[in-house]
Design goal:
Layout lengths: L1 E5 L3 H12 L3 E5 L3 H8 L10 H10 L3 E4 L11 E4 L14 H13 L4 E5 L7 H16 L5 E5 L9 H6 L4 E4 L3 H11 L9 E4 L1 H32 L3 H9 L20 H14 L5 H13 L2 H9 L8 E5 L14 H11 L3 E5 L4 H8 L4 E2 L3 H5 L4 E4 L11 H7 L4 E4 L6 H6 L3 E3 L5
Amino acid sequence: MNVAIVGTGYVGLVTGACFAEMGVNVICVDIDKNKIEMLNSGVMPIYEPGIKEIVDKNVKEGRLTFTDNLEGIISNVSIIFSAVGTPPDEDGSADLRYVLDVARTVGKNMTDYVLLVTKSTVPVGTASKVKGVIIEELDKRGVSIDFDVASNPEFLKEGAAIKDFMSPDRVVVGVESIKAAQLMERLYKPFVLNGFPIIFMDIPSAEMTKYAANAMLATRISFMNEIARLCEATGANVEMVRKGIGSDKRIGMSFLYSGAGYGGSCFPKDVKALARSGEELGVRMQIIEAVENVNNEQKEIVFTKIKDAFDGDLKGRVIAVWGLSFKPDTDDMREAPSLVVISKLLDAGAIVKVYDPVAMDEAKRRISDKVLYSKNIYEAAKGADAIALLTEWKQFRLPSWSKLSGLMRERVVVDGRNIYDQKELESEGFRYFSIGKK
């Protein structure tokens, strides 16, 4: 089976590499010639554990290739996955220009049946627009060629994407025809041999499933962050509360951790887009709007705690920021709490020193020379008045507090992910602030 993946970003590259690993012949396409040159040279445009190894292996074995020429390969594949970006517009709605550009190119160049599958996260009704664009282009050419559209949303966690794709808990597929369903079932059969289901449904339901899943997870995070604020005000401990409600099998422990707020490429964008879709259809998504508002406020919590620790005056204070990516095992800083915290620290007159195991290059692209870049956590903490932990990388879990005590000017730690032990830090002379605990 020959498959094309359009878009070599996070979703597209993981999808293409994993399909190739299962024996599918995959052509990954991107309009960014520089990115294609990087991939052909063995340089990965994203950080994801395991991605380089699986890409290198399948390129060597001839199952995975890269090109910037979508027009030239359409007649050679039976399935085309559209995994291009859908960035939020200024009003929060998803920008579909790249999705529709792919459909337009397919309509202009297809010569035989093809199944165009939307892998990107898109609003309900997008497949209908994609279908309309292809029909429009075929009509312009004066030809009638059979085709199908489908929706196959991804449910990958950054940092564990390879494992999630190779061993999915479910594969959601929205189709309109038996032929499309059979093609998708054949393609995914190797991935579901362990009993994980392929869930077939209509296309609008598949499109909605992705938004609903992300919105639910984001809701749990914002809910716990609000509970954490109330815990601090009442003297309760949010970690104890999490264990108490998470042991209820109807609720479970997942996504009940309080912290500095969620970020990344999915939750913020999808929550905004879902709220915008409801607004356009006259269905106000009040819970979803509240989820976004709580998250925006939560991203300022760490800054507020640092400011309060120094009686509101941060001018000239040196703050070490540990962790820049929105979560561990990725260099993704999209909507990361670190961007909000650093911006507010700089506005308050603080000097900011930063360290992250993999996101330093991305930080330099986004923040430039506004902060001081360090080689490790100890260099970042040298001469600092406070440490702000924003990403719970494993490398940050067991620092030498006695060493840090001797390096720092003042000993304040604001733990934005609740990974440290308060008694241990206080025994070393630190003032410790966490989320949701007094």
